[in-house]
Amino acid sequence: MKRRTLWRSLASIALLAVVAAGLFFFLPHPxxxxxxSGAQPRGAALLERGRYLTVAADCAACHTVDGxxxxxxxxxxxxxxxxxxxxxxxxxxxNGIGAWSDAEFVRAMRSGVGRHGEDLYPAFPxxxxxxxxxxxxxxxxxxxxxxxxxxxxxxxxxxxxxxNQRRVMRSWKLLFSTRRPFVDDASRDARWNRGAYVVQGLxxxxxxxxxxxxxxxxxxxxxxxxxxxxxxxxxxxxxxxxTGIGGWSSADxxxxxxxxxxPGHGSATGAMRQAVDLSLSKLSVQDVDAVVAxxxxxPARRVGPEAAVVAPxxxxxxSGPWNPAQDERSLGSxxxxxxxxxxxxxxxxxxxxxxxxLLGSHSVNDPAGANLVxxxxxxxxxxxDVPQTAMPAFAKAYSDVEVxxxxxxxxxxxxxxxxxVTPRQVRMARID
Length: 432
Ligand code: HEC
Ligand code: HEC
Ligand code: HEC
Hints:
This protein is mainly alpha-helical.
């Protein structure tokens, strides 16, 4: 090929690439044609269905802030490159989504696209919600449209360049989002398929329990083997016996999801306590049963062996509720004696109520103490708990050195492992 021809063809290839990229980044997102199927209920039954699905999908966890109007948004999501805020999704026509068409709503839930065609950030878990059926998305839409409109304006996101360019998300979505509803696996029964639908889509367990890659996308081949949310560890929930929940009975898993506690496995704190209270405890018995059936069949992965739950130590077995087997004088043990033992018991059986049982809890078996430190700082309560029956917040009561000392003592006493919690880690956890 002559030199000049070569340059010409290279130039036209480059031009084509620029045009293709331009089209890719600037072409409008098409609006889907949406219609409910013949199976969609009507009237009050449709609203009830929408309410159930909205709770199961836990929209309120992110779109309602403490003390704010329901679904009026404003919850901050701190990312390494800035902060984004959940928007107002009440039916208010100018501040919420009251003026949206059904098609625009379905497109947002399935493809992460806003009303004016802008690409949305995946802090809105549309990569999971994409799996919902059109009927279910429309039922949610119908229910949300009946809520009280709130005139709270949505807050503007605060991100650095280039992440403040929403179009950047297009390449991310091309790589990581499927935009397709769930398709039943014909080789499995209805219960399994329902469980897969709830776990992967509706209740989006993987948003917290699946690890992410450097680009913040879920590693699907390691699904449910343990992730991180807001500094809390969302444990491995694959059926691995040591590091996952393979050793839990089906009744244990169901109890944990429905009440936030499973006998012999501890209690849900942090983001899981909230997911249980707002959403999972309100799932129907059939849906919980389907979730358990599905979880039993996901590929088992052995992840985080250092945090595996081990049998109670000899010291714990020899202790009574009110008296430790050994008389230790360390700072951590003195704090435990004064501030923790009355509710938890030296033998970890839970003096104050069954939820305070520490035996078998993943949090006290993790030498890094990630959730333990956060729990001690922030406390944990179920709705309706009166003071004295819940886990108090100790952030103000103890210094970083004291929290680290009691955390390491708890890890050592209950699991026999050497806790590695440092005062610096406690200081960082206070900011999270
Ligand atoms: C884990 C947190 C989270 C959950 C759960 C969640 N959202 Fe959101 N949602 C967000 C965030 C954050 C945004 C803003 C994304 C952005 O600015 O790009 C958002 C954006 C939206 C938007 C776009 C609104 C607009 O003005 O552009 C809609 C619609 C929406 N969410 C509806 C829902 C519904 C319905 C549910 C429940 C089925 C839900 N969300 C659950 C975090 C969440
Ligand atoms: C918003 C994030 C989030 C969502 C959504 C979520 N989880 Fe969790 N989950 C967590 C966190 C964080 C923990 C750790 C709680 C603790 O240590 O007290 C946890 C703990 C658990 C545990 C206990 C594991 C152990 O070893 O102690 C089980 C079981 C569980 N989750 C199942 C589920 C299932 C099933 C779903 C979906 C139906 C789900 N979770 C949805 C964050 C989440
Ligand atoms: C007033 C009673 C009370 C006191 C005092 C108390 N706790 Fe708790 N603690 C609870 C209850 C109740 C729960 C379960 C919380 C829930 O269900 O949301 C809990 C939960 C926990 C958990 C999480 C359990 C799990 O299974 O993951 C840890 C760890 C913990 N407490 C450690 C401590 C430590 C350390 C102290 C002392 C600094 C302490 N607690 C003081 C009542 C108490």
